[in-house]
Amino acid sequence: MTFDPVLPPLVLAAVAAVLAILRALSVWPAITAGGWAPLRWFLVTAAMALLLVDAARPAAGLRSEARPPSSTRGGENIYLVVDRSADSAIPDVDGRPRIAGIRDDIQAVIETNPGARFALISFADRPAVDWPLSADTFSLRPVVSALEPAPGDNADQVNASAAATVLRYQLISAAQQYPGSDSLVYYFGSGAPQSTAPQGQFDVGRIDGGQVFGYGSDVLGEQRLRGVADDLGVGMSTRTPGQPLPTTAGPSESPPADGVVGERRDEFYWLLTLVASGLLLVEIGWSVRDVRRARSTAREVLT
User: Fold this and answer.
1) Maximum CA pair distance of the chain?
2) Can you give 146-210 as a three-state secondary structure string?
3) For residue range 58-105, what is the model confidence (pLDDT) as tens digits?
4) How would you class 54 by CB atoms within 10 Å of its CB: exposed for 0-12, middle for 13-18, buried for 19 or more?
5) Helix, strand, coil tally for the chain in percent (to 5)
6) 3-class SS at 269?
């Protein structure tokens, strides 16, 4: 079993120590209260312990995969930046909305980069981190499959570089957490061809590669996408439905050097979260029952 905590280990240990002290202080009142109180204390404590273990991101069943070394620590950090504005709902050549082609291309990027960590950042009128940097591609795929255009007609207010600030901070955080790992950015969008809003720049610092995938044939959109590609220092390719990924977007085809082997982590934080949620739901049910009883008692006293 391995761990890849979402916080520095010392910070996570400090949080665990504080929670342990607080729960220890509350154990005696729970015991003296009698009834179901000791069991409720135990269930809440168990849920908190599971969430702490969850934050450490345990994984098991590591599978070795031969691949070219990309960094001193191993495993690239790949950022998927997706334009979910109204332009992504436009039907493409095969009649499907443009976002369907984007979803297909993202899945292909995931397939062609085994062992990498992925983060998903989407934007319309504003950016959001839909998936934090993680090697758990098993859980990422359903998130990608659920990508849809953002609600509302926002095409005229889109900044094609809206995700730049969020991406920059994500890159800074990853550089501290995974020193030496390569960072790649894949951008999927139309270039905001209908937008009249001011357009920014992708000033995110140095990255190690990636690609801008352009959708649609609008001249203004293509110009803006080429500007994004220039800012990032990566290539650009115009996409059509069913077209294979450009070779520059895939992994290196050279054989592994010095027998370098990448590890693919099978994380099960979702299972711990599910169990903890169940325990907390039981406590919520008890709390709701207590509130109803208290209100019922108050009514009887008043009458």
Assistant:
1) 83
2) CCCCCCCCCHHHCCCCCCHHHHHHHHHHHHHHCCCCCEEEEEEECCCCCCCCCCCCCCCCCCCEE
3) 876 554 444 444 443 447 999 999 999 998 998 876 778 999 999 999
4) buried
5) 45, 20, 35
6) helix
- What pLDDT is recorded for position 3? 76
Cα(216)–Cα(238) distance, integer angstroms: 8
- Three-point CA angle 63, 64, 70, nearest 5°: 125
Domain 69-253 has CATH 3.40.50.410: yes
3-class SS of residue 253:
coil
| 48: Cβ contacts below 8 Å, ≥ 6 apart | 19, 23, 276
Determine the Cα–Cα distance for residues 239 and 218; give it in Å rounded to an integer: 12
Q: Where are the alpha helices (DSSP H) in 207-268?
A: 219-232
Name the pLDDT band for 247 (thresholds 50, 70, 90). Answer: low
The CATH 3.40.50.410 domain(s) of the chain lie at 69-253
Task: Please name every residue paired with 262 in a beta bridge, in sequence order, or none if there are none.
Answer: 65
Give the model confidence (pLDDT) of 30-51 as tens digits.
888 888 889 999 999 999 999 8
pTM of the full structure: 0.64
Token digits of residue 221: 């959109």
The values of phi and psi at residue 74, to 5°, are 90, 135
| Segment among 31-45, 195-209, 236-250, 274-288 with least mean pLDDT | 236-250
Residue count of the chain, please give it: 303
